[in-house]
Amino acid sequence: MFENLKKNKKFDLLMELKKKGISDPNVLNTIETTDRSLFVDNSLKEKSNLNIALPIDCGQTISQPLVVALMTQYLELNKSMRVLEIGTGSGYQTYILSKLSRFIYTIERHYVLTKKAEELFKKLRASNIFCKYGDGGLGWYDQAPFDRIIVTASAPDIPSNLLDQLNENGILIIPIGDEHNDQILKKVTKKGNDYLLEDILNVRFVPMLEGKVK
Length: 214
Prior knowledge:
Blueprint: H1 2-19, H2 25-33, E1 54-55, E2 61-62, H3 65-75, E3 82-86, H4 92-98, E4 103-108, H5 111-123, E5 129-133, E6 146-151, H6 160-164, E7 166-176, E8 183-191, E9 194-203
Parallel strand pairs: 3-4, 3-6, 4-5, 6-7
Antiparallel strand pairs: 1-2, 7-8, 8-9
């Protein structure tokens, strides 16, 4: 009975995502086939198929599925791409990206979250994900440039370090704004020495902080 309820909630979630503008079949299929309950604590598993953000360790959150799907859709991924993710968190967004691209390089400033995500990726046999414990605002110069960059924490401005590590025609998705107010999710496309900016929607993310935290 629980499995049937779970399936019904996943169906309802997918219908909601479609109504909210998620039209990429690859993104929808990946959301459908990924068990979000694996990325939350046992006490929250029954809520994993609801379109809501949920708390995780270190005072962080796992974003609502709509935001995950929307950010992923705007990245315009394909299987040849190398992606940098700033903010591993629970690993849910990371795992979704890993199904749609070639390699994912993900940075997390909380050591506990880094190790927990690494262990889960091993269990899921996600061999194309590479984790780093560090300051995401610095990016990952050793592996740059990247075809796509996604930031899952808000910043007051677009970090120049990340723009420098973006490939020609690359896309960066990032929430910009003050942590105490709604931020604007932006799409940045690199065209030579220029950057094309597009506002997507208002969001609310935890702030991107400097340095590393144990």
